């Protein structure tokens, strides 16, 4: 998993793949946990098909990947890049939810109600928070030039 030019370094594409997997896992976990704790559906809008919600989450994952990629390609990215990643991910989720609700047969009022409910509840906070955590972790690995863990007996004789 290392590039030939930089021993022990993760390539940006591998970091992006791990970050997207972590982002999706965090969204699924947090949405399920908060839905269970609050006894409320993730998208609780009467008359809305069950399809737009998961598809909008997929669009948000794509937006997360697209907005994190430029930062991961830098040699020493800034942690503040996660602010833009979180905002673009949360906004992409809301926009996709509205468009997909219309595509799957909801009227404008129902689609707008679903987006308003998602924007003013914990749903948008989950999408943005997961983007911050997963994006920050990927940037931290990139910035610190992290290596794979090694046992003491795996190290070279000179202590490297």
Overall mean pLDDT? 89
Helix/strand/pairing class, anyone?
mainly alpha
* Low-confidence residue ranges: 1-5
As a percent range, the share of strand residues is under 5%
Radius of gyration: 19 Å
Shape: elongated
Summarize the structure.
By secondary structure, this protein is mainly α.
Spell out the key features of this protein:
single chain, about 160 residues, mainly alpha, 5 helices, about 65% helix, elongated, disordered N terminus
In words, what does this structure look like?
- 67% of the residues lie in helices and 0% in strands.
- The protein has 160 residues and is an all-alpha fold.
- The protein has one domain.
- It starts with 11 loop residues before the first helix and ends in a 16-residue tail after the last helix.
Element layout with pairings:
Layout lengths: L11 H27 L13 H22 L7 H23 L4 H12 L2 H23 L16
Helix pairs in contact: 1-2, 1-5, 2-3, 2-5, 3-4, 3-5
């Amino acid at each position: 998993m290392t590039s030939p030019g930089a021993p022990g370094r993760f390539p940006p594409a591998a970091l992006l793949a791990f970050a997207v997997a972590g982002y999706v896992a965090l969204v699924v976990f947090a949405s399920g946990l908060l839905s269970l704790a609050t006894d409320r559906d993730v998208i609780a809008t009467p008359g809305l098909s069950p399809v737009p919600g998961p598809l909008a989450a997929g669009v948000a994952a794509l937006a997360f990947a697209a907005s994190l990629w430029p930062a991961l390609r830098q040699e020493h990215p800034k942690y503040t890049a996660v602010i833009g990643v979180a905002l673009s991910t949360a906004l992409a989720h809301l926009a996709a939810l509205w468009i997909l609700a219309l595509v799957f047969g909801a009227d404008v009022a129902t689609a707008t109600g679903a987006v308003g409910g998602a924007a003013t509840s914990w749903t948008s906070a989950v999408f943005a928070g997961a983007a911050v955590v997963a994006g920050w972790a990927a940037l931290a690995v990139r910035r610190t030039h992290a290596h794979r863990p090694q046992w003491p007996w795996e190290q070279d004789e000179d202590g490297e």
